[in-house]
Amino acid sequence: MGIVRTTLALAGYGSLAAAGSFIALTRKCRLQDVPPSDHIFNTTLFARYNPNNAPVTQDVCLRRVPLASIRPELLEAEKKGEGKLVEAFCQGVWGGIGFAYQRRYLEKKYRGPETATQVWDTAALRTSSYPVGTQITDHFEVMSKNSNSIIVRCGDSPRNKDVRASDGLFEMLAEIKEETGEVEFGLKSVFYSGTSVPDAYSKEPMSPTIKWLHQQYDKVLMESAVRNCTK
What we know:
This protein is of the alpha+beta class. The chain has one domain (2-227). It contains 7 helices and 7 strands, in the order H-E-H-E-H-H-H-H-E-E-E-E-E-H. It has a 7-stranded antiparallel beta sheet. Strand 6 (167-177) and strand 7 form a beta hairpin. The longest helix is centred in the last third of the chain and has 20 residues, at 208-227. The protein starts with a helix and ends with a helix.
């Protein structure tokens, strides 16, 4: 998982260090495994890009926020089924402080004429509606979008359309829980090596250390994204 490992180790840890006291807020996040029955494992995206069903490193970071704390205009749009809540959450992931270090790292390495049509600038990341096909900082591409979910492909450049050695799906979720008066936000990650042919000795693509670092980075992205959805 070359690019994943590099960006998590350099960008993710850098974001953690830069965020300082902001990290304390991540105590409200909870991490859990993605169950085998989850829809993401049954998508055509997962089947297409992990054709040999190689082992995955997976988790989901969840955070609940009271409805009273959510921006009113997002809740009004949600009543109309416009999907503005998940869009605002997505804007907060890519345009917020959590992704800032990684954005700069990727910009220095990959921004140029051949990636000019991609979304790079913070202002654009904060305002994009992230339709299917949007390419983000030469490392992410929106593959699926509905009223409460946006799935991006990650792990390599979106210019590489083939099955990849380093690959993954990253889903952003926002769902109103009327029974508890909350919104549940989620960041779901599934990483794999699409070119691997698994055997009895196959392991997850991430080591325990890199997986832990990824989870801490997810918490920072979560808090950054939630800030964009609250009053």
